[in-house]
């Protein structure tokens, strides 16, 4: 089984971004992200009802990191380090199979600027080189063409299409699964 010796989530830097651990002061921004209808249109997850619920989500992410269940970074721009504009990382790890599920969210005012591509490139590099994942997958809503195009640009390959495999908000939804293998394995 894959293990890691990370005592804290490492800070990753790219040309324009700093990827850092979430803190409870990000709760207001996370609440804004997770209640933004444009952003959440294709993210079929419950929305927090308050900033306090967003704090609970952050605490859960921090706790799951400590138990090896996820690696999720807050995304901030270097020129505005106090403002979290999104998050990205490995929302679920499957250490027994050396695999993780990637995910990302970015405030719509920052879309179409290459920010998620830049962040995910660093995150995938970290996952393959430092953690030694063998593969990474991503699960998207099939209507989310922007996410599909991002994954393809990152080198992911469509692995599956599951019909009505996910129940959310009173309806059965389809899932499209993409995968990326570690080129060093």
Q: Nutshell version of this structure?
A:
With 185 residues, the chain is α+β, with helices and mostly antiparallel strands. The chain has five helices and eight strands; from the N terminus they run E-E-H-H-H-E-E-E-H-E-H-E-E.
How is the quaternary structure best described?
A: single chain
**Rg over alpha carbons:** 16 Å
Number of helical stretches of at least 4 residues: 5
Structural class: alpha+beta
Strand content: 35-45%
- Give the overall average pLDDT: 97
Any overview of this molecule?
This protein is an alpha+beta fold. Helix content is 29%, strand content 35%. The protein contains five helices and eight strands, in the order ββαααβββαβαββ. It has an eight-stranded mixed β-sheet, with helices on both faces. A hairpin with a 3-residue loop joins strand 1 and strand 2. Helix 1 packs across helix 3. The chain is globular, with a radius of gyration of 16 Å. The two termini are 15 Å apart. The mean pLDDT is 97.
């Amino acid at each position: 089984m894959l293990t890691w010796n990370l005592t804290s989530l490492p800070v990753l830097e790219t040309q324009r971004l700093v990827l850092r651990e979430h803190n409870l002061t990000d709760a207001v921004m996370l609440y804004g992200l997770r209640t933004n209808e444009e952003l959440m249109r294709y993210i079929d997850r419950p929305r927090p009802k308050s900033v306090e619920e967003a704090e609970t989500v952050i605490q859960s992410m921090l706790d799951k990191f400590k138990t090896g269940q996820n690696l999720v970074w807050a995304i901030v721009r270097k020129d505005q380090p106090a403002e979290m504009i999104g998050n990205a990382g490995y929302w679920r790890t499957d250490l027994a199979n050396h695999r993780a599920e990637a995910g990302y969210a970015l405030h719509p005012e920052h879309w179409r600027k290459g920010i998620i591509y830049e962040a995910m490139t660093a995150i995938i590099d970290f996952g393959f080189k430092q953690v030694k994942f063998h593969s990474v997958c991503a699960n998207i809503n099939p209507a989310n063409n922007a996410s599909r195009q991002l994954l393809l640009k990152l080198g992911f390959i469509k692995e599956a299409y599951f019909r009505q495999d996910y129940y959310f908000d009173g309806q059965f939804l389809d899932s499209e699964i993409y995968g990326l293998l570690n080129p060093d394995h």
